[in-house]
Amino acid sequence: MQYRNIIRILGLLVALLSVTMLPPAIVSLIYRDGGGVPFLMAFMWCLLIGLALWYPNRFKKDDLRAREGFLIVVLFWTVLASFSAIPLMLLETPNLTTTDAFFESFSGLTTTGATILTQIDGLPHAVLFYRQQLQWLGGMGIIVLAVAVLPMLGIGGMQLYRAETPGPVKDSKMTPRIADTAKHLWYIYLSLTIACALAYWLAGMSVFDAICHSFATIAIGGFSTHDASMGYFNSPVINLICVVFLIIAGINFALHYAAVQNKSIRNYFADPEFKFFIALQVILTAICFGVLMSHGTYQDADVALDQALFQSVSISTTAGFATTSFADWPTLLPLLLIFASFIGGCAGSTGGGMKVVRVVLLYLQGIRELNKLVHPKAVFTIKLGRKALPDRVVEAVWGFFSAYAAVFVICMLLLLASGMDDISAFTAVAACMNNLGPGLGEVAANFASISDFSKWVLIVAMLFGRLEIFTLLVLFTPAFWRN
């Protein structure tokens, strides 16, 4: 294991992270909210520590292997999320404990959107901006950004990209060079963010709110600058804009890239994962609308449709924005939406969950097993669209599902052991592993009331969800550390 090379890379990344502390300080200066000093102090700390890690190891530039790639990805998220907690610990308003600062930081960077903060409207603008910025940076995976930048510093990126990129097929690249791939992804990501911010602003948001909410929308994060989340604006137009951009962000970015390159949207409709994803949103919205109207939750059909569409897309894409407390809806709907978050967004999107393509493959494999019972000697292949998939891919998906279920059960048992009730424990783990944010019961509004032990368990759950189980789980195998 190339430990000195890994320390050199982490030092560079921490030094780069320090730059992200400056925009909140500038925001504080603009709004004169008095919250900028902690961010300047955090900038100095991160820069000095990053240089201290990098300088003694600056000449260790060996080629990375797959093992180093996985270790760097895990260390990247844990180390950078930990350093991102520094300004939150230094703040006077809000005055956070170390555990709360780490929880908020990990939740932001992993785009989970679970928060321990209350009275968000009264927080300094610098703090509000920093939370949204964390989600934006984490949305596409800062690793991809690092892959675009670090080759200039003598660091190869293929191993990092393979370890970070979600979905069952890790080696597919849109362009021959990995740095070009990362740059194209970020061009698309940045363009969508700008378009979303402009749409929010034209719909009536302030410039500050429009920028902040565009960060969280494209990252499918869920943090807001208001306690009432999107419900603060009370605008069907803003709700619709949010829904449209959440769906766009929940689609595989490789399809966006193909659409831009080919100047055609045909690729979307030829993709089976996209079609299933859109169908899921339509079905969920129709169910929510029907149940809300039949129970008389809303008297006006337009209001019911607006709320059903927004909550369905927000929860199923794992954004977690809210216009109302969906936990107060008829019991079927909160549980239905929580289960929908297990599916999440498409592979290669900023969404969480198990990813649509994996769920589709699990379904197809189930159908194949049923057919084999009827025709034991027949040979059945699993096709995604017109492409027959090798059994190795299907086996990997089943392996992912079993590992996901095992980690989920362990985390939930730990929360139950800490004294949390069953509904709160189940939905808290679902909200964090699926990078969703809100849960039910004790964690419906925020996570402030749960114990410190529970928060650390959920931080681990966020990491497992963000790193798609295997990337983190592989570090616990003896074979990984054996030369």
TrEMBL record:
The molecular function terms of the Gene Ontology recorded here are: metal ion binding; potassium:chloride symporter activity
Q: Where are the transmembrane segments?
A: 12-31, 37-57, 69-90, 136-163, 184-203, 237-255, 276-295, 335-364, 396-417, 456-481
Topology in membrane = Multi-pass membrane protein
Alphabetically ordered keywords of this record: Cell inner membrane, Cell membrane, Ion transport, Membrane, Metal-binding, Potassium, Potassium transport, Transmembrane, Transmembrane helix, Transport
Which positions are annotated as binding K(+)? T111, T112, I220, G221, T318, A319, N435, L436
One GO term describing the cellular component: plasma membrane
Would the keyword Cell inner membrane be found if you checked this record's keyword annotation? yes
Pfam entry (one): TrkH
Is Repeat included in the keywords of this UniProt record?
no
Location(s) in or outside the cell: Cell inner membrane
Q: Which residues form the signal peptide?
A: none
Q: Tell me where on the tree of life, at the top rank, the source sits.
A: Bacteria
**PANTHER family (alphabetical):** TRK SYSTEM POTASSIUM UPTAKE PROTEIN TRKG-RELATED (PTHR32024:SF2)
The text of the family note is: Belongs to the TrkH potassium transport family.
Q: What does this protein do?
A: Low-affinity potassium transport system. Interacts with Trk system potassium uptake protein TrkA.
UniProt protein name: Trk system potassium uptake protein
Species of origin reads Thalassotalea euphylliae
The root-end lineage is:
Bacteria, Pseudomonadati, Pseudomonadota, Gammaproteobacteria, Alteromonadales
